[in-house]
Structure formats: structure tokens, C-alpha cells
Backbone:
């Protein structure tokens, strides 16, 4: 069975600082994809970044980077130079196998302060 | 590209009525769509997987007679909440599978529908 664990229910970060949101996963499938989504108060799920299990390099998308440590089964999201607009819920998710489903973590609520 | 729309975005109904929510892939064909339910400050809970031209696959604990799913075309899936009650009030999100994206099991999400049952 697949499992995603996000241990930080809430995080605070000052504007312009970097923040790391933790995500660990568990799967026996050798092929999988890891996703991070941002969900603002409006409710839409905004794709941020993707890491494939066979990718050699850590993914980066603008201010977002993914610290992928395969042996530790962790896929932490790093947001650099935080902005007030980054305040939202952040979900880590994993897709494995041929079932095409995504398994979501419980989310981390990030608050960016002045 | 890869836009998924949902309609309506918000609906308020009386207890006992049925509500239909539409999910459309606007610029691509989606053989598989997914329906999620999200309670306030909680994660997304997968309700069912909707496959074009066949019956939906429901997750354990989801009442198939309560939440009717129809995926009649490659661009449209509908979720009907039958005889809605206040406990069905929730945020419902659909997504469409994107097989050609190169990202393993990627899904494109609709903007969600907020259902309030009085």
C-alpha cells in the first residue's frame, strides 16, 4: 500500500526567507512519481513540482525545489524567497503503478508573515 | 493546455434534492477522471475513478447509489449526489488523468465545487 506522510500541520515563515515542507512516502513499487500541490483558500489545486523515481537530479521550478532523498524515501519541498502569496495549504502526493491513482498527504498549512 | 473545468463552482440546495456536478476536460481527452471529496482543513479523499464508457470504480466506504458517476464521453464526467443531506456538504474536486504528460500518474484538477445542503 502507498502512504504519504506530512508531519507538519502548520508552518510559519517570514517573507523573503526559505522554508522546507517535509514529505515522506512509502511504496514497494520501483516506479513512482511525487507531486507537490498548492491549495489557496479558493480551493483550486495548483501543481508546483514533480519528481520521478528514476530522475537523477532534484527537480526545480522557479522558487520551488524538491529535495529528493530516495534512500530515506523523502521528498521535501523547498520554497525560496517566500512571498505573502505563498500562504496556502501544501499537499504532497504520490502516483504509483498502473492504477493511476494519487495518494495525498494530510497537508501543511504555510503562513508567510511580514 | 490541460484545463479542467467544473460546474457549478458553488451550489446550495435543500435536503432531499439531487445535485449534479460536471467535470470537463477542455483541451484534451480524458479516458480516466477522478472524483475527490475534501472536508474543511483536511486532505483530498478519493471517492471514485471514472472510466469513459464503463462503470466507475468506487473507493471503500463510498456509497455508489448515493454518488452516481457517469463518464459518457472523453471530455465529460458527472457526479450526482442523490437525495443530498447536510452531511454531504463538502468541497468536491474532479481531476483528469494525463497520460502523455511524461509525469507518472499526473492528474489535472478542476477548480472544485462547494456543495452546501441546508
Residues:
Amino acid at each position: 500500500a502507498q502512504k504519504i506522510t506530512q508531519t507538519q500541520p502548520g508552518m510559519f515563515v517570514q517573507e523573503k526567507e526559505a522554508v522546507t515542507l517535509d514529505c515522506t512516502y512509502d511504496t514497494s513499487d520501483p516506479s513512482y512519481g511525487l507531486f507537490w500541490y498548492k491549495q489557496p483558500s479558493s480551493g483550486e489545486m495548483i501543481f508546483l513540482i514533480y519528481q520521478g523515481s528514476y530522475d537523477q537530479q532534484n527537480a526545480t521550478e522557479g522558487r520551488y525545489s524538491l529535495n529528493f532523498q530516495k534512500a530515506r524515501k523523502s521528498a521535501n519541498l523547498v520554497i525560496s524567497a517566500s512571498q505573502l502569496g505563498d500562504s496556502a495549504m501544501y499537499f504532497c502526493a504520490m502516483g504509483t503503478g498502473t492504477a493511476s491513482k494519487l495518494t495525498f498527504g494530510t497537508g501543511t498549512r504555510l503562513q508567510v508573515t511580514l | 493546455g490541460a484545463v479542467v473545468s467544473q460546474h457549478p463552482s458553488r451550489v446550495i440546495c435543500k435536503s432531499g434534492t439531487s445535485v449534479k456536478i460536471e467535470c470537463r476536460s477542455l483541451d484534451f481527452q480524458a479516458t480516466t477522471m477522478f472524483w475527490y471529496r475534501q472536508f474543511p482543513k483536511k486532505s483530498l479523499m478519493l471517492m471514485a475513478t471514472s472510466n469513459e464508457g464503463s462503470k466507475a470504480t468506487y473507493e471503500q466506504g463510498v456509497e455508489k447509489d448515493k454518488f452516481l458517476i457517469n463518464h459518457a464521453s472523453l471530455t465529460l464526467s458527472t457526479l450526482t449526489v442523490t437525495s443530498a443531506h447536510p452531511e454531504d456538504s463538502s468541497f468536491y474536486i474532479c481531476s483528469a488523468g494525463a497520460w502523455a504528460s511524461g509525469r507518472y500518474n499526473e492528474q489535472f484538477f478542476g477548480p472544485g465545487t462547494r456543495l452546501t445542503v441546508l
The radius of gyration of chain A is 14 Å.
